[in-house]
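Hi! If you just cloned this repository, the fastest way to understand the data is to look at a raw example. We've pasted two of them here, unedited. The first protein comes first, obviously.
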Amino acid sequence: MAKPTYKELLDAGAHMGHMKRKWNPKMLPYIFMERKGIHIIDLNRTSEYLDRAATAIKQVAKSGRKVMFVATKKQAKEPVAGLAREVNMPHVTERWLGGMMTNFSTIKRSVKKMNNIDKMLADEGVTSITKKERLTLTRERNKLEKVLGGVANLNRLPAAIFVVDTVHEHIAIKEARKLGIKIFGIVDTNSDPTLIDFPIPANDDAAKSINIITSYITEVIKEGMSERRKENEASKKEAVA
């Protein structure tokens, strides 16, 4: 996927901000104008900052490290989860558990518990479990899967997070900042862009706007991963030679 053009961003509604009374003054450099009480985002700035974010996140992917996608808003969760799976990246799209990164060891224990339940349920030779106990375990497993399924394969903290709606996901932002994890995020006119390492000014409410930006970021991650594979293959050939 090529970088979204100005027209494509416009058609996706990426320029539509919040009502003026809800704005964050720190977003002033990214606002083009006000129309009927609504702030209009400068799409030239969106394009510029999308370039910056893409360059940086590509390097993260090329290094072999993980980028965690965070989007628990109703209109963002399903498309973002799907895009994260495309690049085998961790994602949180149901609910952010407090301490998901700052108390990562506890999260890993919960994931281990989920995996142990899977083994128990899959082992047909286990006869000590009653039907009622099996039903209880299945319910518990499904509950854990819903919240932790997207991070089940995450063995260590991600190098970066990509966030849709930095106001809504303020707890994730706070944890990432505390741990020094790079933050990429779509920032609307009610956001504080100074909390984000690589802000992308755009509408974070419209599904089309979220999708066009997240899709591009995903493609850039794919490119980084592909370049890493090629470099590794070249290194192996040199070693053999």
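Ok, and the second one:
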Amino acid sequence: MAHGRLLSLFLGASLFLGATASFVQAADTIKVGILHSLSGTMAISETALKETALMTIADINAHGGVLGKQLEPVVVDPASNWPLFAEKARQLLAQDKVAVVFGCWTSVSRKSVLPVFSELNGLLFYPVQYEGEELERNVFYTGAAPNQQAIPAVEYLMSEDGGAAKRFVLLGTDYVYPRTTNKILRAFLKSKGVADEDIMEEYTPFGHSDYQTIIAKIKKFAGAGKKTCVVSTINGDSNVPFYKELGNAGLKATDVPVVAFSVGEEELRGVDSKPLIGHLAAWNYFESLKNPENSKFIKMYKEWAKSRNLPGADSVVTNDPMEATFIGIHLWKQAVEKAKSADVDTVIAAMAGQQFNAPDGFTIQMDEKNHHLHKPVFIGEIRADGQFDVVWKTKGPIKAQPWSPFIAGNDQKKDEPDAK
């Protein structure tokens, strides 16, 4: 009997030690999730963010990792399917036990995962410009709020330097980001004295490819004798047929300039840029910016593309959401090192005020309270080579206003996330 008890104790101790060894082995790495569409309509934009995340993680690992541990990326493909984003987020947090997730592009994908991150107390870094009207405890927003992109762009178009536009076409993909952004812009334009009849609003579904009718309507709207511009919140691969049809219709930037909020260097790789010369994009980063940090960032990504044999590796480009992904991962690393732990609650606290020398040429900072970055704003003109010449910029980073002052009731909103 005593022998049996000893054997049980020995087996129990062995199992415990085995489990402990297994746990120690697992604890040698910190798992991080990458949640981006690698197929479907958004793959044209999101695949490069997955590669940027993997590149940044590999670089951090090559320099010693985080807290002496290697980062272990877990990549999933929600396939431009918004409910699937929530399923994949739950998988990353509940099954894969990742410490943080870098991902989403569209606001509908972000809103799909928010309840999961709140329920499971996960941590999401969201790298794309968005419509604001949100402030979540479990999310850090490294892309622009409307006052860091949409509002400055429209102000520029209304200025003498920007062509003194009087009529505005608000053209977007039919989901929350374009509709909310255009609600904000319509209220802003109204505050500047623009009449409703001088604003045209149009939406197309994801993956839309026939823009002939809409371009014809824009030409007719622009024929009223007032300077007209297009504000585009078209997302994903629909940008390719939109810009092709713009060129086919002979709508030049000198006639009806288009300013885009979701078109950067990556999207322009898929079109002939020559007919688009002079059209505009508003971002917080362009590849054409000249500074040492950007030179390093571009060189790193080009070398990464060649080492991974990515499609078109010789012609890869960097863009704003890629920079925001790169920044977000480094800020998270710094917060983990400050907190001496990858625990979500301690990292959230440590994120306040984190700074980073960014490829945009500025030392950017995470706001002390509102989970958004202070970011510079640039407006660029499309060049024949698909790059951008900066025609307007802020003097430095500006603080995000997640709650737009142009939407009624936002003066009551607090500029910090609700406590859990």
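That's it. A detail worth noticing about the second one: The CA atoms of residues 104 and 303 lie 25 Å apart.
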